Amino acid sequence: MHGASTNKRAADSHAAALASTIRKLMAAGFVSQRELASELNRRGIPTALGGSWHYTTVRRMLRRLGLKTKGRINIGRTNKQAADARAEALASTIRALQLKGLVSFKSIARELNEREIPTARGGKWHPSSVSRLLHRLERLEPSSRTAVDPEE
To answer: Could you give the CA distance from residue 68 to residue 137 in angstroms, rounded to a whole number?
Structure first.
């Protein structure tokens, strides 16, 4: 029994040490266990035993951190938080493009693709994805919207 409690303490300690990294990855859009495992391996971050990450080791880590309960990550809330964080990170770029005169969804998508700024899932921008991003930014920054007086 002594060995089991030592292993649990070591696993808890390793989970705590990686908590901020895991949360940052989730906020950046890596929400599935497979995506997280792949990104942790890509970054060269070893597991507690020094091996490679697998989705099951990620699942155990998420459970230890309280980010996963009863077999599922709270995908709805996690996805929304990740999308909000990504939108906020792109807000200044979008504002700069709009100030340069790029106002159509198509022109903004073209410019983001030319700058090689990937979408949350690493793909190309389309007018519809730009539209969703701008609507999210409006929701996140209600004070930045300028009210237009219909009588002007």
So the answer is: 28
Q: Which residues have C-beta within 8 Å of that of residue 30, sequence separation ≥ 6?
A: 36, 39
Question: Of the candidates 87, 97, 92, which has an alpha carbon nearest to the alpha carbon of residue 138?
Answer: 87
134 phi and psi, to 5 degrees?
A: -65, -35
How many angstroms separate the CA atoms of 24 and 20, rounded?
6
Among 78, 73, 86, residue whose Cα is nearest residue 132: 86
Phi, psi angles (nearest 5°) of residue 44: 75, 25
Strands (E), 17-108: 68-69, 72-73
Residue 81 CA, distance from chain mean position: 7
Give the model confidence (pLDDT) of 97-139 as tens digits.
999 999 999 999 999 999 999 888 788 999 999 999 999 999 9
User: pLDDT tens digit string along 20-38?
Assistant: 888 888 877 777 888 889 9
Q: Please state whether the predicted TM-score (pTM) of the whole model is above 0.70.
A: no
Q: How many angstroms separate the Cα of 32 from the Cα of each of 40, 61, 106?
A: 12, 13, 30
Provide the CA 137 distance to its chain's centre, in angstroms. 15
pLDDT of residue 110: 96
